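We now fix the convention by which a protein and its fold are recorded. These numbers are not coordinates but entries in a learned vocabulary of local backbone shapes. A record is reproduced here so that you can trace the correspondence yourselves:
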Amino acid sequence: MQTISHQDEKPILVEQQQAKGLLRAFTALRHRNFRLFWFGQLISLIGTWMQSIGQAWLVLELSHNALTLGLVGALQFLPVLFFALFGGVFADRWPKRRVLLFTQSSAMILAFVLWILIITGVVQIWQILVLATLLGFTNALDMPTRQAFVGEMVAREDLPNAVALNSSLFNMARIVGPGIGGLIIALLGVGPLFLLNALSFIAVIVGLALIDQNRLFVHEKHPGEGDHVKQGTLKSVREGLSYVFHTPSVALIIAVVGIISLFGINFNVVLPLFATDVLHVGATGFGFLSSAFGIGSLLSALWLAWANRRPSIRQMLIGATAFGITEILFALSHTYILSLVLIAAVGFAQIAFSAIANTTLQTVSPNHLRGRVMSVYMVVFAGSTPIGNLFTGGLADPFGASIALLAGAGLSLAAAIGGWFYRKPAQSSLVEATALSELEE
């Protein structure tokens, strides 16, 4: 695979400097490979969110049991918690494009199977649980690979923009997908959602197939860098974990993101209770609260894409601190309009700190370790979801939604404040690690 040289990057940098206004938010889309990937993901993620609400509706129709609904969600994340580290090893050993072709095709097949079970009238809860578990295993390989692949499709200078655009993609899909899905359920039932989701994977698979491997920003290995391929899987996992724990900037980011993901990013569990029991605005109010969060997240992602700044520990900690404060204020609010503004601010801050954390990890990580570093990030960011949901839901049952969210937000703010005490050594480590990583170019 060909290495892109600095001479190849000069026209890109000139274009980036000339980009003005809103166009600055989309500079990474000048890279053909990233453009193919991004638009394919846009279509696919809309289908994923459509299936998400369709699956929830289907489970409730079949079981009439909220616990079963929670179990299905947990099964989709537990494999990420336990196996994403091994997925990171595969991401570092195999061409990431090839891995993603496999994972996206597998997810498409699982959606087709569920659609067939529905239209034939034989679908049962145990089948949905099995398919959810298989999707979880697929995600354990797909998530770290997809995150690490972004760094191979764009120049280093465009990486902050590309990560932010990926976040905007996710949030656009989260806003559009459920709305379309709800209309389809009302008109045609849940079955078509699974077919449409399966078909939506064709876009990303075609995009991956059309990617020009000779234009990927893959760097030549230095002597000894490829030795990890000869290692056993467990030794490779230990190598990745050792790098994470012994690099202060990476360790700090993982710790702060991990604690906030575990305790703070679980308000979706209690958001319906806020709508009904705290704010007394019912289902319609709940919909607006969800939309406000999505809009805040999308605006944050677009702002980060427009700024396209080199990430820093300070920026990440500012976002994390703002997240803790705004979530505490939302937990204390009993005024609907104020709560709409605050939940939008929570969404804005969440994307700000998580996208900066993601970009920083990809910037400092050596090429041969990037998949494993991003697998650790996905374990703490997404894999902790089942445990965090149990924490928040467990507190909400006896103490109420406000206390449950206040506890999680307080722990999140404490993690952000703790991060400030270690900011200087982490920032020094970030500068050093970034310089070493840039030597690969």
